[in-house]
Specification:
Tetracycline Repressor, domain 2, Four Helix Bundle (Hemerythrin (Met), subunit A), mainly alpha, 2 domains
């Protein structure tokens, strides 16, 4: 039982469920009737998001096992519950299952499989090579966070809709801002570990400006879905709340870019991101 729990813990089930859910949201943004007419596609799509996220989490634990032996000794690998070679085999199995479900998601096109493979490779690249690269690593994380929405779109359509691209751009920008903000929070530890974040290389103030720029660029994109007639009236109040939140967090961070305040802003942005997610999902309903 203990080893079984260890394998489950390495997957980070909550993260996996969130990514699977994001695939469903991406499908609804692309087609408001997705949950009615594409249940089989979305079932496989959910499993793909779940399994490939689980695989990337296990790969992360495998590569971080030496650091975790110091910082997180109770995790399955450093505690001795799971052997490193077992974790690697587990990651390969999860990856294979995830890519199989990707192939089955939308039989009419190979786009789902190719996009799943591409984003899986991105996540592995980040875990193995990208963590210490700073801004490049931030971009890789943001691409991976954007992935389920593109994948969900492809699960129910043969091309990525304009509305989806706008939402993905907003996700990419706001998450990049959040990653840069996280660099402000972790600046001391990152210096010691040689992580080349903007905060480490150029200072906290310039990192603040970079993060705020990303947040405000995301805000600037929000009128486009309404302008192009891609959403209903309910989109407006919800996305306005998102915009107000991001602007508020930006002003707060500019006034006080201390580690403690950056941590608060990082949490706030996650909440604004969720409201924006709801705005696009509700705004897409017909």
């Amino acid at each position: 039982m203990g080893r079984a729990v260890g394998f489950i813990r390495m997957m980070r089930p909550v993260n996996c469920l969130m990514m699977g859910f994001a695939v469903l949201v991406g499908a609804v943004i692309a087609d408001s009737k997705a949950l009615t007419f594409y249940l089989q596609n979305l079932s496989f799509g959910f499993l793909t998001g779940f399994l490939l996220t689980a695989a990337s989490m296990v790969v992360n634990d495998y590569y971080d096992r030496d650091i975790d032996a110091i910082n997180e000794p109770n995790r399955p690998i450093p505690s001795g519950l799971i052997k490193p070679n077992e974790a690697l085999t587990y990651a390969v199995l999860l990856s294979a299952l995830g890519l199989i479900t990707a192939f089955l998601t939308n039989i009419g096109t190979i786009a789902c499989f190719l996009s799943a493979l591409f984003f899986w490779l991105l996540s592995v690249t980040y875990v193995t090579l990208g963590k210490k690269t700073g801004l490049l690593g931030n971009f890789l994380v943001s691409l991976c966070v954007s992935a389920p929405f593109i994948y969900g779109n492809l699960a129910v359509a043969n091309d990525v809709k304009l509305k989806t691209w706008i939402f993905v751009a907003m996700v990419f920008l706001s998450n990049t801002g959040r990653e840069v903000t996280k660099g402000i929070v972790d600046v001391k530890g990152d210096k010691m570990r040689g992580v080349k974040t903007i905060a480490v290389r150029y200072g906290v103030r310039k990192a603040t400006i970079a993060a705020v720029t990303c947040y405000l660029l995301a805000v600037a994109l929000t009128p486009l879905p309404w302008f192009f007639g891609l959403v209903n009236i309910w989109f407006i109040p919800l996305v306005t709340l998102t915009d107000i939140g991001l602007i508020f967090s930006s002003i707060t961070l500019l006034k006080d870019h201390s580690r403690e305040n950056a941590r608060r802003v990082k949490k706030q942005v996650l909440a604004w991101f969720f409201v924006g997610l709801v705005a696009f999902a509700v705004g897409s309903l017909s």
